[in-house]
Design goal:
- This protein has one helix at 32-52; strands at residues 7-11, 14-18, 26-29.
- By secondary structure, the protein is of the alpha+beta class.
- The protein has one domain: 2-Layer Sandwich (Double Stranded RNA Binding Domain).
- It has a three-stranded antiparallel beta sheet with strand order 1-2-3, covered by helices on one side.
- Strand 1 and strand 2 (14-18) form a beta hairpin.
- It is globular and about 45 Å long.
- The termini are far apart.
- The model has no long low-confidence stretch (mean pLDDT 97).
């Protein structure tokens, strides 16, 4: 199983997500949890489409971390 980093941002009244390693794959929803679920589904479908088209599947390279600052 491959893991891709996704970024979830507050976007007005909802949340939006994207995967830096998979350009053009995005999702949006009312909650963070729903956005995460929709993004997972979007990634699965996007990768299936790339396979069907004979395109290369991007290798995950992006990592994210949270740091605390004073």
């Amino acid at each position: 199983m491959t893991q891709y980093t996704i970024i979830i941002e507050k976007a007005g009244d909802n949340f939006a997500a994207y995967a830096p390693d998979i350009p053009g794959c995005v999702a949006a929803a009312d909650t963070v949890d729903e956005t995460r679920e929709l993004m997972q589904e979007a990634l699965i479908l996007h990768i299936e489409m790339l396979r069907e088209m004979g395109e290369e599947i991007p290798i995950p390279k992006v990592q994210a971390a949270v740091v605390q600052v004073a």
